[in-house]
Amino acid sequence: MARIVQKYGGTSVGDVDRIKNVAARIKAFRAAGNEVVVVVSARSGVTNELIARAKSIHPNPPEREMDQLLSIGEQETIALTAMALEAIGVDAVSYTGAQAGIFTDKVHTKAKIKTIDAKPLEKDLSAGKVIIVAGFQGINEEGHITTLGRGGSDLTAIALAAAIKADKCEIYTDVDGVYTADPRVVQDARKLNEISYDEMLELASLGSKVMQTRSVEFASKYNVVFEVRSSFNNNPGTIVKQEVAYMEKVVVRGVAVDKDQAKVVVSNIADKPGTAAKVFRALAEANINVDMIVQNVGRDGVANLTFTVPQTEIGKVERTLAPVLKDIGGSVTLDDQIAKLSVVGVGMRTHSGVASTLFSALAGAGINLELISTSEIKISVVIAKSKADEAARVAHKAFELEKL
Ligand code: ADP
Ligand code: ASP
Ligand code: MG
């Protein structure tokens, strides 16, 4: 007997038949004597629809109200999944995030989990019930509903697995596992048998939406080994775990594309100590994640700062920088027709020539590089959005990932 946390994503619970399919799978795990805690997402498309509806009423909806609204998507699927289980004779009970004791900080729309009080859940588990927990949501100390950022049901599952010391954590989705690139874009992408936390973290934060970034960070911190697999078949998935020595033999393990970024250029600001600090302090205070910062060499006392931000934050960036620019001078231009392409692999630490292979391959395809950034295990470039998919295929081929 094992204690298993399973998470079923939006496509897996996308309609009534799929919810019934998930219930049948859960029944088999329970019948084998396991303790099962299930996390479900909203039906696919529901969260997006709710966001669109909110925006049609208010261009910039209050974030607390957004969380009230978005949390209902998961509330529907927990109840339906519990009903589907009861309908086939499995004792089940649904929990909202708050009922599952998931306490977060106060940052609405991207709250961090602070603690989990698993006592109520443990009680129902020992009574033999299957517990269905709403993904993506928690409650803050003032009793307000919070959400954990897009894709946050992954985080709910991994945090619960850590809190109840689960033997297994399984993330069920609509693909067989983590691939060398998004299989919808790169047809000959290969499924990986395993991948290190660091590589998964980079791929996720660089645009591979198969796992939410924060959830991988959490898994790495608390050493929660998890498996990404399909809810539509029984194929073995991809194990995500701590790095082991042989993993460095592979130079590039995956290619990621992020089309949800925008480029911000702050031009003609005073070239003196403290200006960059003012810009980035303001952005940090507004909780805006900034990436790929480049400052050009100042000339005639003025300089330009270029960086990328999530596209969803563009409005916030403009509002946040307006008062700062009054102080330091300069102007802002925004470009959302960009994409970030990245190659990731722990083997880059011990192999050279990765950048030149990537740049030559992209140049060969006539793809222009607007920004470049590197870290120990990744290289990222900003390119035109219209070239993003082609660039992914070119990079995949350049590193022969179809042969992995
Ligand atoms: P869920 O709703 O189950 O959370 P997501 O849509 O969030 O599912 O994530 C699964 C999707 O991630 C896949 O359908 C696939 O298109 C996409 N994806 C992007 N990059 C990768 C990758 N490297 N490996 C596997 N899937 C990827
Ligand atoms: N429903 C939320 C979203 O679409 C959370 C999730 O699916 O994990 O982002
Ligand atoms: Mg997801």
- Which superfamily, in CATH terms, is the homologous superfamily of the largest domain? Acetylglutamate kinase-like
Beta content? 25-35%
Total of helices? 11
> Globular, elongated, flat, extended or rod-shaped: what is the shape?
globular
Low-confidence stretches: none
CATH architecture of the largest domain: 3-Layer(aba) Sandwich
In whole angstroms, how far apart are the ends?
Answer: 35 Å
| SS-derived structural category | alpha/beta
- In CATH, the topology of the largest domain is named Carbamate kinase
Number of DSSP E strands: 20
CATH hierarchy, class of the largest domain: Alpha Beta
Describe the strand arrangement of the main beta sheet, using strand numbers: 3-6-2-1-9-11-12-10
Q: What does the largest sheet look like?
A: 8 strands, mixed
**Distinct small molecules:** adenosine-5'-diphosphate, aspartic acid, magnesium ion
Mean pLDDT: 96
- Helix coverage percent of residues? 25-40%
User: What integer value in Å does the Rg equal?
Assistant: 22 Å
Number of domains: 2
How does the SSE layout of this entry go?
Blueprint: E1 3-8, H1 16-31, E2 35-40, H2 46-57, H3 63-87, E3 92-95, E4 102-104, E5 113-116, H4 119-126, E6 130-134, E7 137-140, E8 145-147, H5 153-163, E9 168-173, E10 194-196, H6 197-205, H7 213-221, E11 226-230, E12 238-241, E13 254-258, E14 261-270, H8 275-285, E15 291-295, E16 302-310, H9 314-328, E17 331-335, E18 338-344, H10 354-364, E19 371-375, E20 378-384, H11 388-398
Parallel strand pairs: 1-2, 1-9, 2-6, 3-6, 4-7, 9-11, 10-12
Antiparallel strand pairs: 4-5, 7-8, 11-12, 13-18, 14-16, 14-17, 15-16, 18-20, 19-20
The structure holds adenosine-5'-diphosphate, aspartic acid (ASP) and magnesium ion.
